[in-house]
Write a structure and sequence with these properties.
four-stranded antiparallel sheet, binds zinc ion, 2 helices, alpha+beta
Length: 148
């Protein structure tokens, strides 16, 4: 990876992180953010799909090597037979840098995850948005932070 590409990825992750940590009304506060990195090739550019009917399952596909990855517990709910929707930016572009924000329970007794937010940053126009969010609400679920 060239230096400028690495820097661009750094900027994308910083912006995604900032965006996810911004307190929002009607949303659970995000405590932890993890950037998505392809486990196969280290790529950070993805095409992203969600289930059309059900919330709570996000599949990312590495633009460089085509490897699929699932965010948090998405693999459990993904169904190839169901209709999927490919995420597209308002500008029409379909390749993104991605990060997951995790809202944790604040009782201090566990590191269980309450809610997951998946934010994508368009690689063409840099617009960031939350494309999917869902409740986890079971434990132990702290390990989901490593599944992005
Ligand atoms: Zn890859
Ligand atoms: Zn865009």
């Amino acid at each position: 990876m060239t230096g400028s590409a690495a820097m661009a990825h750094e900027t994308a992750y910083e912006e995604l992180s900032e965006f996810l940590l911004l307190p929002e009304e009607d949303a659970h506060p995000v405590h932890e953010v993890r950037g998505c990195v392809c486990r196969q090739c280290g790529g950070r550019s993805f095409k992203v799909a969600v289930m059309a009917e059900d919330e709570g399952s996000v599949r990312r596909t590495c633009v460089s090597c085509g490897t699929h990855g699932f965010i948090a517990d998405s693999a459990e709910f993904w169904d190839d037979d169901e209709e999927i929707e490919v995420c597209a930016c308002t500008c029409g572009h379909e390749e993104f840098a991605a990060a997951a924000g995790f809202s944790l329970y604040e009782d201090g007794e566990s590191d269980d995850v309450r809610w997951v937010y998946v934010a994508l940053r368009c690689e063409s126009c840099q617009e960031i948005g939350v494309y999917e969010d869902w409740k986890i609400g079971y434990g132990p679920s702290g390990l989901l932070l490593d599944q992005v």
